[in-house]
Amino acid sequence: MNATPCPTPGFLPSLVIMTTQTAYAVHQSARPTGFPTAADFRLARTPVPSPTPGTALVENLLLSVDPYHRGMMDGGDDGFALGTPLEGRSVGRVTASRDPGLREGDLVFHREGWRTHALVTRGVAGTRVLRGHEGIPLESYLSILGGTGLTAYAALTRTARLRAGEDLFVSAAAGGVGTATGHIARLLGARRIIGSAGSAAKVAHLTGALGFDAAFDYHDGPVGEQLAAAAPDGIDVYVDNVGGEHLEGAIEVLREYGRIAWVGAISMYNGDRSPAAPRNLFEVVHKSLRLEGVLVRNHTNLQDELEDFLVPHLRSGRIGTDTTVVQGFEQTVEAFLGMLRGDNMGKMLVRIDG
């Protein structure tokens, strides 16, 4: 079924009244040059689809906007196609079903986000019924219990194999993966946790609200120098969400046999050009360091283990969801752009009106 563009490109005007008969979706309309703008997107509308055999209709409640979306906007084999709804993590409720594995009323996680309604099939593209832990807010399933939390958990327990008493540095520490990494590392017994962030307010949030032992604003001077001052005795593990100067600084400060779990490279988004490799990369050999990439899709088997580990601490209040929630589907594009600008504390989510 062909989609009808909404009257204003780039965002859904507030005057558009959302109804149960109309479905809305964000389409990418152009490849961005550098930092994306609202003009690179458009909102499309169609009648709400009916489930076909083997599918269920989900009305989305929460959407995730993530850093990896920026890379996929450039296209390529694994990128977004123009003129189709963007893929993204979402939580929604089944409203009609012809899939025997999904019942009306089920809360589900799926990857057909950036739209108000989706047809999904259980077990396909990560679609699963949420376990529905009592007392756990819905936002948790797209933050600390979602892909960001799972990434942090896999990075710490499988890739870096953090041990109790070790010292950790995490970059972009006030973002979704960063805050989850701090929480999980503390629960695993890390001795000192150090974070970098992009503003004084975020640094204060890390050391105040989140209990980091030290933090610094990477705008305030060379990352390597600031990290060395925060960790004069070195670190054992680095969870890297940035790359570039952060990775170079961490290699300099890591102790012998240290480990790097490389999750992302924010420094290379939007056409930014950081060095192809840190200038001190050979220190990986000199110090017998280990550097390994982390792709969350390779660790989905850890989902139940993650929830069993974290849910008691969420219930007790020892850790939180750490989210910035933007209200209204019409704000999806702005929430995405805000996340790229670093406007969020923790995971950036969109709650759909309804």
Put the structure in a nutshell.
With 354 residues, the chain is α/β, with parallel strands linked by helices. It is 24% helix and 24% strand. It is built from nine helices and 16 strands.
Structural features, described:
Helix 7 (283-286) links the parallel strand 13 and strand 14. Helix 2 crosses helix 3 (176-187) and helix 5 (223-230) runs parallel beside helix 6. The chain has helices at residues 68-72, 147-159, 176-187, 200-207, 223-230, 244-253, 283-286, 303-316, 332-341, and strands at 4-5, 22-28, 41-47, 56-64, 90-97, 107-110, 117-120, 128-129, 167-170, 192-197, 214-217, 235-240, 254-262, 290-293, 323-327, 347-351. Residues 1-17 have low confidence and may be disordered. It has nine helices and 16 strands. The chain is globular, with a radius of gyration of 21 Å. It is of the alpha/beta class and 354 residues long. Strands 4, 5, 6, 7, 8, 15 and 16 form a seven-stranded mixed sheet that branches.
Give me the count of strands: 16
Instruction: Give the proportion of residues in helices.
Output: 10-25%
- Gross morphology is globular
Largest sheet: 7 strands, mixed
Mean residue pLDDT:
91
Order of helices and strands: EEEEHEEEEHEHEHEHEHEHEHEHE
Estimated radius of gyration:
21 Å
**N-to-C CA distance:** 24 Å
Give the amount of beta strand, in percent: 15-25%
- SS element count, helices: 9
Q: Low-confidence spans: pLDDT under 50, at least 5 residues?
A: 1-17
Structural class: alpha/beta
